[in-house]
Amino acid sequence: MRSLEGIGTIDRERMAAVIRGTKGTVSVNEASQILDVISTDAAKMLSRWTKKGWFSRIKRGLYIPVPLESKTVDIPLEDPWLVADRLFAPCYIGGWSAAEYFDLTEQIFSTIVVMTCKRSRDLKPVIKGTPFMLRTVPEKTMFGLKPVWRGQAKIQVSDTSRTMLDLLANPELGGGIRSVKDMLGNFLISPKGSLEQLVDYAKQLGNGVVFKRLGFLIEFVAPDEKKILEECRQNLTQGNAKLDLKLDNTKLITRWRLWVPENWKRMKTND
C-alpha cells in the first residue's frame, strides 16, 4: 500500500498552488516562480514532498504529482506525451505513436516515438516504466506538425502526411515496412490523408528514398494513382536503396531503384 506522510497547512497550500499553476509536470524553476521563492528553496520543497509521497521524481529538477488514488509513489506516467515534451523539446510525437493517434493502425505500441532536435546519448530511455524511442532530426525539418491539447498543455504531433513521410523515410518507426504498407493503405482512405500533401512534404524533406519506397508501395495499394506514381518517378534520386534495412532485400526493382525482398516481387514487373 502507498504510504503518505502528513503535511502541514502551509505545505498543502503551496502544493496546491504548484499543481494548479503547472501542466502535468513540475520543474524547480516553475515552483520557484509560482511560490515566489528562490530556486534552492523550491528544490528543497519538491524534494521534501517527494520523500513524503506526494510527488514523484522523473529526473533531476522535474517532478509529477502523485494522484491521491495511487497505492504507490512509483507510478507510471499518466500522459507520456507531456513528459516527452518537457524532456526532449523541441520535439514532436511521430512514427507509430502518431499513426495510432490518427487511426492509421490498429496495432498497439507501448513505446512512444519522439522526433527531437535535442541530442541524447540514450535513444531508448525508459521513464517510470514507459519506453521511449528517440530520433534526432534537424530543426529545419520541423514542419507538417499539428498542435494537440493534452490537458492544459499543447503538444506537437506530426500530421497524417508528415507521419507517413517519416515512416517511409525510416520504416523502423512504423514497426517495419509491412506495417508501413498497411498504414499507407489506411492513410489513403482517411479523410485526413492527402497524397498530394505527402508528395509536397517529401520534396521539402529532400530524402530521395521516400519517393522510391512510396512509388513502389503505391503500386501495391493504389495502382490507379497514376499522377502520384509519375511524381515519384520524376523525383527519383540516383543510386539504389533498400525497401527495409531490416529485411533480406535480394530483388532489384530497377524502375524504382529499390532492392526488395523476393516475396515482395510483383508478377507484372518488367525488370
Give the secondary structure arrangement, pairings included:
Blueprint: H1 9-20, E1 26-27, H2 28-35, H3 39-51, E2 55-59, E3 62-65, H4 80-88, E4 91-93, H5 95-101, E5 112-116, E6 126-127, E7 130-136, E8 145-150, E9 153-158, H6 160-169, H7 177-189, H8 195-205, H9 208-221, H10 226-234, E10 241-242, E11 251-253, E12 258-260
Parallel strand pairs: 5-7, 10-12
Antiparallel strand pairs: 1-3, 2-3, 4-5, 6-7, 8-9, 11-12
Helix pairs in contact: 2-3, 5-6, 6-7, 6-8, 7-9, 9-10
- Residue share in β-strands: 15-25%
Number of domains: 2
Structural class: alpha+beta
Q: Level of helix content?
A: 25-40%
Question: What's the quick description here?
Answer:
The protein has about 270 residues and is of the alpha+beta class. The chain has helices spanning about 10-20, 30-35, 40-50, 80-90, 95-100, 160-170, 175-190, 195-205, 210-220, 225-235; strands spanning about 25, 55-60, 60-65, 90-95, 110-115, 125, 130-135, 145-150, 155-160, 240, 250-255, 260.
How is this structure best described in words?
- The chain is of the alpha+beta class and 271 residues long.
- It has two domains: 9-65, Winged helix-like DNA-binding domain superfamily/Winged helix DNA-binding domain (Arc Repressor Mutant, subunit A); 80-238, no CATH class.
- It is built from ten helices and twelve strands.
- The strands form four sheets. The chain has a four-stranded mixed sheet. A three-stranded antiparallel sheet has the order 1-3-2.
- It starts with 8 loop residues before the first helix and ends in an 11-residue tail after the last strand.
- The model is unreliable at 267-271 (pLDDT under 50).
